[in-house]
What we know:
Number of strands: 3
Largest sheet: 3 strands, mixed
Shape: flat
Order of helices and strands: EEEH
Bound molecules: zinc ion
Radius of gyration: 15 Å
Number of helices: 1
Helix content: 10-25%
Mean pLDDT: 85
Amino acid sequence: MIDQKTTNPKAPGPRIYHRAKGIREDGAVSALCFTSPRAINMKVATWTIRDEAVTCPRCLEIIGQSKRDPS
Ligand SMILES: [Zn+2]
């Protein structure tokens, strides 16, 4: 268990995991919840391709909607 008081204050906290939407030619990754393609700020967030590892609520909402069978 990590004690927040003893950890390095400069160390980033738990980062949000977005669901990766696409990877650009330069390696920048866009997230599912971004309305327009832009690179994820890797200082505060990161990305995953595993739905179960996603922690971004907006990405999760979109995943949930897309998994719903329209028929
Ligand atoms: Zn997201």
